[in-house]
TrEMBL record:
One of its GO terms (cellular component) is nucleus. It comes from Aphanomyces astaci. This is DDE-1 domain-containing protein. GO terms for molecular function: DNA binding. Residues 222-356 form the DDE-1 domain. It comes from the Eukaryota. InterPro entries: CenT-Element_Derived, DDE_SF_endonuclease_dom. Pfam families: DDE_1.
């Protein structure tokens, strides 16, 4: 005797719609007879009939077996209004203006929004390009850390420095957007070539942030930082030499180690000679294509810095009297300088020290 139960069959949304439409088109008077002809359990058919309107108007793909909406129920009482507002509008400006602490409000609201977005099938999408595999990068990282400390273990942590450049733009909208799954994440418009300057950031392994490389217009910039003009707003041999003489040299009390990437002017013969002969220090180049793993600034500082710059830009946008405000090039440069200084001063010594420990660990993982 076969004790097996009836074989389960799972119907897709398309099959449900087809069978319901076929039943109405056939003008059948007996639903049970229709079910027997289609080998369809009558109890299943009754469930479809009770939800017929919902099945026929459902917009999920016909291959899907469910109509959506499963899982935990929403605890946000205004979820429908929030979802409707989320599609065409940005949310930050509507919420931040009413909070006492803008930074805390932004982070709290961002966490709430991300959890809400995940339940409604939204995802953050960011392109990521790497020239080497993660496995190779890990091997390079461990080898570099061992080599670094075998050469510089006798140096005090205040004598270990890392320097790198990063671009700062006048318009710094968030690099991610919430895109509904299956739909485009392109934006209608945006300034492709926003005004830019280059910030040169220096940190010490003991947790002390350094200065920012940051003369008619330069005299109007905030004091306590160094500024230079370059045609393309980027680092070159001349500006790098000015950085070594005017910014780095006054900060060195003893022979030090300057960790840099493989940018040409960073590792040039003139740089090696200047640090060795004038500052009694050495240049330590990072392995090629390894800055994401081995450079302290990239590992633990650049991320928080850029995130805070974008938050600062959002707050500036929210505080403007008109969205049609027009800024001169000089006003834009001054705004970028002030924004960068404001954010850089928020980088803590703990963040800097942790970035060195993570990028160039003294205790290697087994």
């Amino acid at each position: 005797m076969d004790n097996r139960g009836r074989q389960q069959h799972r119907y897709s949304n398309g099959q449900r719609k087809e069978l319901l439409a076929e039943f109405h088109a056939s003008n059948a008077t007996s639903e049970r007879q229709f079910c027997r002809a289609k080998h369809l359990p009558y109890s299943t058919w009754q469930g479809w009939r009770s939800k017929e309107d919902k099945i026929m108007t459902n917009k999920r793909h016909s291959r899907c077996a469910t109509m959506g909406g499963q899982g935990a129920k929403e605890i946000i009482p205004f979820k429908d209004d929030l979802l409707a507002f989320m599609l065409p509008e940005g949310l930050a400006s509507a919420v931040l203006g009413e909070q006492k602490s803008e930074a805390v409000a932004f982070n709290s609201f961002r966490s709430l929004l991300l959890r809400f977005a995940e339940r409604h099938r939204f995802r953050h999408r960011t392109p990521c390009i790497s020239k080497v595999t993660q496995r190779v990068l890990d091997e390079v990282w461990l080898g570099y850390a061992a080599s670094f400390w075998s050469k510089y273990a006798q140096y005090d942590r205040s004598q270990l420095l890392n320097v790198d450049e990063t671009a700062v733009y006048f318009d710094m909208p968030p690099g991610k957007t919430l895109a509904e799954i299956g739909k485009s994440s392109k934006v209608a418009n945006g300034e492709k070539h926003s005004d830019r300057l280059t910030a040169v950031l220096t940190i010490r392994a003991d947790g002390q942030p350094g200065g920012v490389i940051d003369k008619k217009e330069l005299s109007t910039y905030p004091a306590g930082h160094f500024y230079a003009v370059q045609k393309n707003a980027w680092m070159d041999e001349r500006v790098w030499s000015m950085y070594l003489d005017e910014v780095l040299a006054p900060c060195l009390d003893d022979a030090s180690v300057l960790v840099v990437d493989n940018f040409e002017c960073h590792v040039s013969d003139s740089t090696h000679e200047k640090l060795a002969e004038t500052l009694f220090s050495v240049v330590e180049p990072l392995p090629p294509n390894s800055t994401s793993r081995c450079q302290p600034l990239d590992v633990g500082v650049m991320g928080p810095l850029k995130a805070m710059l974008k938050t600062a830009w959002l707050l500036e946008e929210d505080s403007r009297s008109s969205v049609d405000d027009v800024f001169t090039a000089q006003e834009k440069r001054l705004a970028m300088v002030k924004r960068t200084i404001l954010v850089w001063e928020k980088i803590t010594s703990e963040t800097v020290a942790k970035s060195f420990d993570k990028a160039i660990p003294t205790v290697l993982e087994g």
